[in-house]
Task: structure prediction
Amino acid sequence: MSNILIIEDEAAIRRVLVKILSEENESYQVFEAEDGLKGIERIRSEEFDLVLCDIKMPKMDGVEVLEAIKKLKPEVPVVMISGHGDLDTAVNTMRLGAFDYISKPPDLNRLLNTVRIALDSKELVVENTRLKKKVSQKYKMIGESLAISHIKEIIEKVAPSEARVLITGDNGTGKELVSHWLHQKSDRSKGPLIEVNCAAIPSELIESELFGHKKGSFTGASKDRAGKFEAANNGTIFLDEIGDMSLSAQAKVLRALQENKISRVGSDRDIKVNVRVLAATNKNLKKEIKEGRFREDLYHRLAVILIHVPSLNERREDIPLLIEHFSKKIAEEHGNTHKEFSKSAISLLQEYDWTGNIRELRNVVERLIILGGKEVSEKDVKLFASK
Result:
């Protein structure tokens, strides 16, 4: 069922709209409010999928009602109802977030078509919100230790800015999670997040991968191809393991950061890009600079904000929370019932030397859930999680 609210001070217009919508589709439940104040009261206390709102009304006009709805229920589409003299105002309401407007007296086909499209758009907004929450949960940072709390505080401050961030830490500590949080909490969250593992791409292909190439620029370049920087335009690019990037590619990345321009391999044409760069490494870049393997000027461009992700051994107090989180996720993935871990089993796991960090802990938790008893015991840990 779709709940539709009509906010209109003219009773005759309300009756017409209710009749048209109710007869068009049995799944439409149509409600009325005779002025803006009463309409807002209903929106506060009830759930609606669509609002049709007159522009000229006593007590509270349609523009004020629209602004209030966008604050209270921003996902609800609002279609404005305009008289002949209200058309300029109706057009202006589109800038304020109105979905569309219809003129009085309402044209039957135009009205029904607008209502159908608006209701479809509401479903899309709800579905997109659900998917975003799902993605957000996938990349949730688990932990309440001082180190993790400090990282979360930095992310909250830094994410809305355009500042570049260099994320450091050992393999498996969760540097990728930090990059996702930074993107999701930024003004670029509606744009793409493009991830590039610099260590996984052969040095001779890294420039083509990042900046694209022209047809015939090297053996195997059979057609023009856009690179990751172009794909990330108006969004974020995450350069993971940037310490493994060749000096030649580093020079091009530096130019992209300085001038917001890139050029494809084999081309002398500049392409403008609007990209926020996040980078991560498990290497000591200052040492790499001294040994001539990393550009100092690039380091200072990237390291506007530094975030160090601690090893699991440095945040052992988070291990019980991580075990609980992983055990629930693994049970969902395998279609099994969630298994509890005994206190002694958790205590023993807290004593281990986690050289593989979070990644290693997740693998061990999965192994214990598959091989352990109904409740994972200290004995199970000793049998199946031995180091």
Observations:
- The domain at 139-310 is CATH 3.40.50.300 (Rossmann fold).
- The two ends are 57 Å apart (CA to CA).
